[in-house]
């Protein structure tokens, strides 16, 4: 018997799951269904669709494909990564406690601190690159472990399987923001996570032209709550966005191979460059981190940070500015995961809201530069960095 598309290789799943020829026209590519409502066949009778907030065929096709890419049974999409994160946190009740990694995405930190804290959901942050730390911060009220791995911007990894085991002993469920790794390189559900979240704005869309978010799970109860919130809160993914992301994920596997190949070449270049003090890349800091990468990832990915060597009497911000001003191919921009290479300055961009002493404590200096390595020719990217670092 031939395997179902769900059980085939990654890119085959990305191209085929949920994407059979359109039943009414034979269209090979899932059509963009721009409709807010569906004509019913009779009272309480319809073809599976009633209203556009509740469901849409383009969106449904994308959700089927996304579930298959994370080895999950259910995927529920939202209008942005933040809306997806919000849907997960919204399932908590007042007095529930969250433990999150300390290198958390700034938007998630803001959601915990400036929205949910007022509603009685309290979060604490810990450096979870050593799993045993989790036991020291849980309380009887702890319900959710929120993990990001690799982290931003220092690309530290956390052992998902070890942390999930500890969290489950404490009756917590485990959510992993898998945006940096993508399902091509890491599948948290296989490692014991209860839900996986992606900002599809990044690698899944892959072309910096669309925003979206998704939550994927194998738990029927969680999936039901998420579907309920999707329809009830209404922060849904539009049909056009779903169509663009469906187009994007078909090439996710081959894009990630090239992104990563380029990142490895750039890492090698930066590590031997006299103007560079240190390079951060998943698994690069110590043997323990390398062993976690080897256990749970199929590759280190394409996000990379590096610190410029300090030069006496030189203002670090001026130095960073002058490097940036000489870059031609790397654009100075927020976000990541598109085909084009981007450069960012965590201290004044993604992590500007962290108080300076916390930034220093966490190793985010003013000389730290973050790269989202694109899929251009590696030699051209290295040439661009070479010019800029002169
Ligand atoms: C961008 C990002 C988000 C937020 O996603 P949006 O689509 O911008 O709302 C969440 N987590 C991580 C790791 C991200 O990089």
Any chance you could write out the topology, listing elements then pairs?
Layout: H1 10-16, H2 57-69, E1 74-78, H3 81-89, E2 97-101, H4 106-116, E3 122-126, H5 133-137, E4 142-148, H6 160-169, E5 173-177, H7 182-185, E6 195-199, E7 213-217, H8 220-233, H9 239-249, H10 252-271, E8 276-280, H11 287-296, E9 303-308, H12 316-326, E10 331-332, E11 342-344, H13 356-361, E12 368-372, H14 378-388
Parallel strand pairs: 2-3, 2-4, 4-5, 5-6, 10-11
Antiparallel strand pairs: 1-7, 6-7, 8-9, 9-12, 11-12
Helix pairs in contact: 1-2, 2-9, 3-4, 12-14
Bound molecules: pyridoxal-5'-phosphate.
Quote the beta fraction: 5-15%
CATH topology of the largest domain: Aspartate Aminotransferase, domain 2
CATH architecture of the largest domain: 3-Layer(aba) Sandwich
Query: What's the overall average pLDDT, rounded?
Result: 96
Description:
The protein has 390 residues and is of the alpha/beta class. It folds into 2 domains: 5-249, Type I PLP-dependent aspartate aminotransferase-like (Major domain) (Aspartate Aminotransferase, domain 2, 3-Layer(aba) Sandwich); 253-388, Aspartate Aminotransferase, domain 1, CATH 3.90.1150. It has helices at 10-16, 57-69, 81-89, 106-116, 133-137, 160-169, 182-185, 220-233, 239-249, 252-271, 287-296, 316-326, 356-361, 378-388; strands at residues 74-78, 97-101, 122-126, 142-148, 173-177, 195-199, 213-217, 276-280, 303-308, 331-332, 342-344, 368-372. A 7-stranded mixed sheet has the order 1-7-6-5-4-2-3. Strands 8-9-12-11-10 form a 5-stranded mixed sheet. Helix 12 packs across helix 14. The protein starts with 9 loop residues before the first helix and ends with a helix. The model has no long low-confidence stretch (mean pLDDT 96). The protein binds pyridoxal-5'-phosphate (PLP). Pyridoxal-5'-phosphate binds at residues 80-82, 105, 107, 148, 177, 179-180, 199, 201-202, 211, 213.
